[in-house]
Amino acid sequence: MSPRNPLILIALFVTLLLSMAAAVLTGPTSIPIGSILTNPVYYQIISEIRVPRVIAAVLVGAALATAGTAMQGLFRNPMADPYIIGTSAGGSLGAAISIVFLAGLGLPVFAFIGAIGSTFLVYMIARRGGKVPVETLLLTGVALSMFLSAMLSFLMYTAGKSLHQIIFWLMGGFWTVSWSQVHVGLLIPIGCVAIYIFARDINIISLGEEEAMHLGVNVEQLKVILLFISSLLAGIAVSIAGAIGFIGLITPHIMRTIVGPDHRVLLPAAILAGSILLLWADTFARTFGNEMPVGIITSFFGAPFFMYLLRRRMRA
Amino acid sequence: MKAVEITGLDVRYGAARILEEIAFSAEQGEMIGIVGPNGSGKTTLLKAMSRIVTPESGEIYYNNQDMADLTFRQLAREVAVVPQEIAIQFDYTVREIVTMGRHPFIGRFASESREDHAICTRAMKLASVDHLAETSVNAISGGERQRVLIARALAQEPKVLLLDEATSNLDISHQIEILSIIRRETVRASIISVFHDLNLASSYCDRILLLKDRQIHAMGPPAEVLTRENIRAVYGVDVIVRKHPLTGRPYILLMYDHERGAPQSTRIHILCGGGTGSELMQTLHAQGMQITTGVLNILDSDYLTAKELGIMVISEPPFSPISEESVSILKRCLTEADLIILLNMPIGRGNIENIRVLNGYKEKVVMYGMDSGIQDYSGGEATRLITDLCGCGALRIESIQEMQSFLSSKRLHEKKDKSGMII
């Protein structure tokens, strides 16, 4: 580990804390710090709207960054993201079903089941003779995502007046977040720690499956663990805030260029960076964007940045 | 205790049989080379031994432990693998890659101890990549990257080291460097390596395992396994097997146009000895000439070449003079020959008879390579006889190119004669 890496982690952590404080104090209603405790309306806005929302953004950012980093390592593919094995398509379909047939009742649960269910389906389809080659997994994920997207499109086509609601949800955002969702989101740190326990194994499997076997990694078991926890994390994230793009893809990239590929450093760095990025994107959305879906902002800034990274990669 | 013991190993991919009835063992500190043509199952054997592929039947034991009973972690403490080459997607440093070799020894919630780091540093020194420790593995050359993989395998402190053509993509200096590093590791480990290059296998291995069509064709010391017959049977090519002058191990020379030229009617007798005739014999043999040679002593290197090429050779036991019987055979050969080529061989009392008989065949004699002076150990007689031959107008040829153009002009000449006869 490079000696400056601990400093980078500390700097990211401090930045996150300061960002959270700043985000709580920022919003369409300007609230002077001094009057938070004295003014009950201000107190209400802070404690019931902004604090849960800030925590949710931080947790979802952490979940997407963790799952993205783990998937990129597992698939040895820097283009992988948390949704690559059907998570977002499944989650979106689940949410759309809830909106169309149940008027949005139990939407987070449907989204979660959709996300986890599609990952499980991809795994079972790709499995053969007790083994799941990552290439097959990747392609199965792409194929199933397309199939689920077709079903989603069909639902949207027949949705009638709830179409608007589906589209809004698909773009992803935190405007509906309340404390109850934050409570579900508290599973996220547990998932992040669980992935971190396997950081050294991710390092090794990122060299290739056979290599990992030679170095004493139980590859098939590791795949199940990483896929399960990652899809759980992505599923929770989707159920809280919809399918927010680019955070899970880009944060591992950025942090890899700064702290290197060792997942024991990369994972915490990506978690912190993912939280900070999503927190600022959401703060921007609710303060200046008139509650614009945060997915628009992450993609709007994320896609050009990603292209910049691609160009740089080609030059390297 | 055997370091490796394999019994009745069968491997299949679906319906295709890849390995059948493989059984062998390796002693502690032994280096074994696995050779065989493409598709003979070399790499699969190594993959079965590192549990990448699951065998249909058969057992693999490492130091009396059944591999099937070991966890991946336990197996990685016994066996390390150096692959042919790997593409590393992310920019790990050399030290990070080598440190991964300690993975099977470190607990899930622990990180590398001071001792682990010391082992890795030592491994990097052994493979001479310590100066690259903080460099990205994607910023170094192929040879350096291969040494990094060897350092990683050494960091595993394995009891058995498996190599899959670990040097086949490297230039010769790196091949030798890396194989020497590995060879030294037999102090601690048994080594089993797949080779494409038979000469590398011959030079570095204690024993060779030759695979043919999924099965073991032969196994034993290089001199027993790497024979002309075995190589012909397994690879379907003719080769010349020599002893390497420094190592004494078999050295395999390829006969590049191993399809022999169309048989020619020209009969040539070559008088040679002490290795002077080998090159010429091989060249003319490859052109399809009908060649005879002798009289030579058995074990003379020209005798061995003639035997390898399947050339008729008149011979005498080692250090024996030429018998009358041999002289009469020689005369018969000389009579039948269209051409007699006398090479600049050392001539002593033992073989001077070969020159004496030439008196009756002066018009057929061509001398080859005499410019460097006659190697006369016969007290002047050889010099006199050869000078006499020259006096009679025997042709002198100095290079193999000159010899070839002479032979082709001679063939042309013969054809003209024949056509002349028809007219």
UniProtKB/TrEMBL annotation, chain A:
The keyword Transmembrane helix applies. Required for corrinoid utilization. Probably part of the ABC transporter complex BtuCDF involved in cobalamin (vitamin B12) import. Probably involved in the translocation of the substrate across the membrane. Belongs to the binding-protein-dependent transport system permease family. FecCD subfamily. The keyword Cell membrane applies. Keywords: Cell membrane, Membrane, Transmembrane, Transmembrane helix, Transport. The chain crosses the membrane at residues 50-71, 83-103, 109-126, 138-157, 186-205, 225-251, 263-280, 292-310. It is found in: Cell membrane. GO terms for cellular component: plasma membrane. GO terms for molecular function: transmembrane transporter activity. It is a multi-pass membrane protein. It comes from the Archaea. InterPro entries: ABC_BtuC-like, ABC_transptr_permease_BtuC. Pfam families: FecCD. This is Cobalamin import system permease protein BtuC. CDD domains: TM_ABC_iron-siderophores_like. PANTHER family: ABC TRANSPORTER PERMEASE PROTEIN MJ0876-RELATED, FERRIC ENTEROBACTIN TRANSPORT SYSTEM PERMEASE PROTEIN.
From TrEMBL, chain B:
SMART domains: AAA. It catalyses: an R-cob(III)alamin(out) + ATP + H2O = an R-cob(III)alamin(in) + ADP + phosphate + H(+). InterPro entries: AAA+_ATPase, ABC_transporter-like_ATP-bd, ABC_transporter-like_CS, P-loop_NTPase. PROSITE patterns: ABC_TRANSPORTER_1, ABC_TRANSPORTER_2. GO terms for molecular function: ABC-type vitamin B12 transporter activity; ATP binding; ATP hydrolysis activity. It holds the Pfam family ABC_tran. The keyword Glycoprotein does not apply. Keywords: ATP-binding, Nucleotide-binding, Translocase, Transport. It comes from the Archaea. Residues 1-238 form the ABC transporter domain. Its EC number is 7.6.2.8. SUPFAM superfamilies: P-loop containing nucleoside triphosphate hydrolases. It is an enzyme of class 7 (translocase). PANTHER family: HEMIN IMPORT ATP-BINDING PROTEIN HMUV. Required for corrinoid utilization. Probably part of the ABC transporter complex BtuCDF involved in cobalamin (vitamin B12) import. Probably responsible for energy coupling to the transport system. This is Cobalamin import ATP-binding protein BtuD. It comes from Methanocalculus chunghsingensis.
